[in-house]
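README, section 4: Worked example with a bound small molecule

Sections 1 through 3 covered apo chains. Here we extend the same pipeline to holo records, where the ligand is supplied as SMILES alongside the sequence. The molecule in this example is pyridoxal-5'-phosphate. Nothing else about the input changes; the structure line simply encodes the ligand pose together with the chain.
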Amino acid sequence: MDSVPLVSATATAESGTVSRSGSSVSSLSSSSSLSDLLSTFTAGVGSRTSARGAHPRGTASVLTSTVNLTNTIVGGGMLALPFAVKSAGLVLAVALLVAVMITTAFSVGLLVEAGKSTRAPLFTDLTAATLGRKWVPVVQISVILQSYGTCIGYYIIIADMIQPLLAELWPGGSFFTSRAWVGLLALAVTGPLVDEAIHAVLDSAYYIGGPQVAQFETEFSEYITGEDGHCAGCSNGTDAILLALEALGVGEGDEVITQANTYCATVFSITRTGAKAVLVDVDAETMMMDASQIESKITANTKVIMPVHLYGHSADMDAVMDIAKRHNLLVVEDASQAHGCTWRGQKVGSFGDAAAFSMYPGKNLGGYGDAGAIIAKDTAIIEKIKILRNMGQKVKYHHECVGYNHRLDTLQAAVLSVRLRHLDAWNSRRKELAARYIAGLNAVEGLTLPTWDPATVDPVWHLFVLRVGSAEKRDSVLKALQGAGIGVGVHYPISVNKTGAYADEFKDSSYPITEAAAVGMISIPIHPDLTDDDQDYIIEQVKAALA
Ligand SMILES: Cc1ncc(COP(=O)(O)O)c(C=O)c1O
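The generated complex, written as structure tokens:
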């Protein structure tokens, strides 16, 4: 069997490859075909901006555009032809089809000529040049509506046709009636949506701070908190923690209490602010922050408690919020691994004064590159972060404070908006897979499975972490699974207090549960693209490795 990756392949499966192979879907989107054609013909006329000049679509050939147009007409004709022939008769139907082709070709010719004479490479530019700027939104809205209409149309066509077709072809059921295959077909429709979003950014050439950033911030804010205004996008999860702490006034002389069992970025970002990181161990069962250790670490300098919702689970937010309230401390959640996870039905990331999310590609909500976001209760903190992340400026060249270049990339924002719509479905699949792992592995001796309290936590299973005990056992199981082509990982092999970066800082402290976990843990694949068959194979191999 093929090797099974540890992290989700969704990012690549949803990329342009899908839409490019699904040529009938993309070629039938006439709006993009026409703008391709138009930009092709006008590319030689004189590209007005260097950003557009670098646009890959400007290099398409006349031949490509002609084939694309013909494909569009023939594709549209294929759907309509049977009806036309039946109701109008063969001769009239063919005559109508030819008339449609001539009208379309004439319209395209007109557009090309208009494009050449006005030197406008895009529909929007052409509208501005011929009708005036105030008509541009009308064109934009109609293109958006048409694109949405096309996507919805294809969803309906697929849904209507797939069931009877599959049932007829494979009456007893087969791979082609399986969930994995139907999922792939759905991706063939979703892929173009991501493509469409990316092309919208490319067409606008608004690569920094485009409207897609604000749109994603609104959507993610509503997803986590139920309200707009509480999100600022940024460059990655590490910077999200740094910006949140800095905006809350954390710096030199302050202490931030977090946990030893976490990714290094949590602690790096604390110490980057100039504050001191104070670590507590994790709970031996849940592997989340051991809240019973927090109070003994509080000093006059303590300013923040930072729980980390590791592996897609939640820290004990009742305990953390209670301690913070009694000691008048701020709470900043590191929710980088837990997009959509809830504690008592409330999304993690909405409890504290602020929360940081990583949108690294392998995360439950991942971009097509580095990305991150901060959620904050107080909208003034969000405004402060928006200034900090953008070179300390709100108005260009008016630098109110020493800032960073930690902005969210417009392309990533566009991709994340589309992917956010799938997050709940992907998390549901992760939950299904976790339940199947638990059913398949709970009787295996020498194996500790993830533990959580379902009365409080609804995990979203960023990782599925097994504990096998000793370092020797861990290494032998790792080797066996890798040998079987399974992508495994260790989160994390060296506890943060023992990394070289903090060799001096924590040399007198120990965190026995975290340190034992570091040598005895294995993460096995869990991601929405994992099929039942692949998972059964993994379960079999884990059992064999531990036998
Ligand atoms: C718990 C935690 N915090 C912070 C980060 C940092 O996020 P990024 O890689 O996007 O900088 C990660 C990323 O893996 C993480 O898992």
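What to look for in the output: The longest helix spans residues 136-169. Residues 116 and 507 are 70 Å apart (CA to CA).

Section 5 describes how to batch many such records.
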